[in-house]
TrEMBL record:
Organism, scientific name: Aliishimia ponticola
UniProt KW keywords: Hydrolase
Record has Hydrolase as a keyword: yes
Matching PROSITE patterns: CN_HYDROLASE (PS50263)
Domain CN hydrolase: start-end pairs: 4-275
One Pfam family from the record: CN_hydrolase
GO MF terms held by the record: hydrolase activity, acting on carbon-nitrogen (but not peptide) bonds, in linear amides
Protein name from the UniProt record: N-carbamoyl-D-amino-acid hydrolase
Amino acid sequence: MREIVIGAAQMGGIQKAESREAVVDRMLALLAQAAEAKCDLVVFPELALTTFFPRWWMEDQDEVDTWFETEMPGPATQPLFDAAKRHGIAMTFGYAEKTPEGRYFNTSILTDKSGTIVGKYRKVHLPGHSEYDHDRAFQHLEKRYFEPGDLGFPVWRNLDAWMGMCICNDRRWPEVYREMGLQGVELITLGYNTPSVNSQDSAEGLKERLYHSELSMTAGAYQNAAWVVGVAKGGDEDGHPLMAGSIIVDPNGFVVARAKTEGDELVVHACDMDLCAFGKRTIFDFARHRRVEHYGRITGQ
Ligand code: CDT
């Protein structure tokens, strides 16, 4: 048995005016709870340090830059790394990254139990649009503020397991899971900020949106015999509701733990990485059963 006690650290809304320091304090409280619960790994949401700023139209690049981190850890996030190391807890969280070359990514990092960054992922599937859209109830400007990730979908050996990451909209694309599945991934972590309403279809309800989120993650888990931990930023952000629905999914596609609230909440489950082995050596033994000669449209070959 290779058990990793995972804490899915859902976060409630972060207001535009909330400082990084105030948000990090909330994350520290969740880490302390995780230490009490003997967690080995804590998973925080996408863009965990700030409000979901891509909903706001900005023309001034200096203003845009205020939402980005130029170093990780930086002064505001160092306490998080110090606490994780003190507790001996690995963690992953999302943030907006500005590189020294002036490139902008929607990024997540993964640490080991000593607080050392062992993995970095940059979001590949950026939803939304890049110009102001008058036809939407609210904006979703990820294509304006970020460029698509340039690191692909790597996996890392961490806590004696193969781990990979993706971010929010990525979870809806089967290729994302399969890219990691082909590398033997056993645990996929992801954070998300999903509005509770569809900006282009007011008839689509919360129930349907939660269902599609869960459907994507449970299918990805089952079809790749891997654990999937999806963690939301939920609740209200300056009048804009985000759906919650954080879940931990086992390698058979069953939800084994889920958030009960839309706020800061730690969802804990002991995840046995050895549960991935059966699916990987039987129905989803990719080397034996895939028929890549028929997948040309997908691979572009
Ligand atoms: N953050 C993020 O990727 N959210 C998207 C919303 C899509 S609506 C433009 C998601 O897929 O949940």
